[in-house]
Specification:
Layout lengths: L1 E3 L2 E3 L2 H11 L8 E2 L2 H7 L2 E6 L9 H11 L2 H5 L2 E4 L3 H13 L3 E6 L4 H9 L3 E5 L3 H15 L2 E2 L6 H17 L5 E5 L4 H13 L4 E7 L4 H8 L21 H10 L2 E5 L1 H15 L5 H12 L1 H4 L3 E6 L15
Parallel strand pairs: 4-12, 5-6, 5-8, 6-7, 9-10, 9-12, 10-11
Antiparallel strand pairs: 1-2, 3-4
Helix pairs in contact: 1-3, 1-8, 3-5, 3-8, 5-6, 8-9, 9-11, 12-13
InterPro entries: BHydaspDhtse, TrpB-like_PALP, TrpB-like_PALP_sf
Family: Belongs to the serine/threonine dehydratase family.
Keywords: Lyase, Pyridoxal phosphate
């Protein structure tokens, strides 16, 4: 760790240590390609499939690093977090592997598939209203009651270091990348990309992709300071949370641009990947392809790593289904 402007931030050495620590508990996920999508976009796309990750999402990386970083005394009290789904179920997964309790504060509107997964891994759910303010208020009460270690979904140096292992793997799997693009909500995955790529592949440009309906990161990027929305409404349920000070540090210093897509564009991209690549992925994971299709001139002729962040979707409520 290093101290920057009063923030304890992870270094690339922390990413390397995290990778060694979590290897027994994660998959090295595959990178897949599609000639059809290459022709459609004019770019060479390499999809890093974290939908095949343990617990169905990249967040198993950061959660596992946080849980297995704890000393025995702290771990015995358990861990707790607030999450719309993937971090919560990933922390439950990691806590289960270590045999410690896990409590997750989740919006009552979170997909049932993600709630089921949290409980399936042994986690306890406490529900809140679907707003940042309600989430943080209920969570404060949970920590006071349990004494559990707070593992923030993204504003935690242990989590960011764990997420950095994804792009570390990708660099070994794909030669000559020109750019990497990942979805952005709170910015944990993008921060991990920034940490790794700025350290060992600074020539690779980093893009973030965001729903237009929840574009606080894009507006923050252009304004030069964090702008937080309390309760944005988007089909990409994993991208509703705002940046925090640690993720803002990485985003503001290393991201080339933050691109946005409409709800219709996100659902269209999600369908396209399901149909053409036969990949089960959630709406948040489709946002990068949606923005590439919308900004073909930015990526034309480039070798682009596209991070598919998760596949925990409610199959009974797919966004193109008629109500």
């Amino acid at each position: 760790m290093k101290d920057v402007d009063g923030l304890d931030l992870p270094t690339y050495e922390d990413v390397e240590a995290a990778h060694a620590r979590i290897k027994p508990y994660i998959h090295q996920t595959p990178v897949l390609t599609s000639e059809y999508l290459d022709d459609l976009t004019g770019a060479h796309l390499f999809f890093k499939c974290e939908n095949f990750q343990k617990a169905g999402a990249f967040k198993a990386r950061g959660a596992s690093n946080a849980v297995f970083s704890l000393d025995d005394k702290s771990a015995a009290k358990g861990v707790a977090t607030h999450s719309s789904g993937n971090h919560g179920l990933s922390l439950s997964y990691a806590a289960g592997r270590r045999g410690v309790p896990c409590t997750v504060v989740m919006p009552r509107t979170a997909p049932q598939a993600k709630k089921d997964a949290v409980m399936g891994y042994g986690g306890r759910i406490v529900e809140c209203e679907p707003s940042t303010s309600s989430r943080e208020e209920v969570f404060a009460r949970v920590v006071e009651e349990t004494g559990a270690e707070f593992v923030h979904p993204y504003n935690d140096p242990r989590v960011i270091a764990g997420q950095g292992t994804c792009s570390k793997e990708m660099l070994k799997q794909v030669d000559g990348l020109d750019a990497v693009i990942a979805p952005i909500g709170g910015g944990g995955m993008v921060s991990g990309c920034c940490l790794t790529l700025s350290s060992i592949a600074p020539q690779v440009k980093i893009y973030a992709a965001e729903p237009l309906n929840a574009d606080d990161a894009a507006r923050s990027f252009r304004a030069g300071h964090i702008i937080a929305d309390d309760a944005p409404d988007t089909v990409a349920d994993g991208l509703k949370v705002p940046l925090k000070e640690r993720t803002w540090h990485f985003v503001s210093n290393h991201v080339t641009d933050i691109l946005t897509a409409t709800e219709e564009e996100i659902v269209d991209a999600m369908q396209l990947i399901w149909k053409r690549m036969k990949l089960v992925m959630e709406p948040s994971s489709a946002v990068p392809l949606a923005t590439i299709l919308k900004n073909r001139d930015v990526f034309a002729g480039k070798r682009v790593g596209v991070i598919i962040t998760g596949g925990n979707v409610d199959l009974g409520k797919l966004p193109w289904m008629k109500n």
